[in-house]
Amino acid sequence: MRDFSWKYFAMTGDVDAYLLYREAGESMVTAADTAAEEEQVYDEEAN
């Protein structure tokens, strides 16, 4: 979805496509942060 919205923005200059691209990128970062935090909690509980 992120790649599509970037390509669409690049071809058309549509601002909404760019905002969708940015939103998709932010959710990817948030998901990675959440996964790292959960892994740290599991490691702490295992010890």
TrEMBL record:
Pfam families: YqzL. It comes from the Bacteria. This is YqzL family protein.
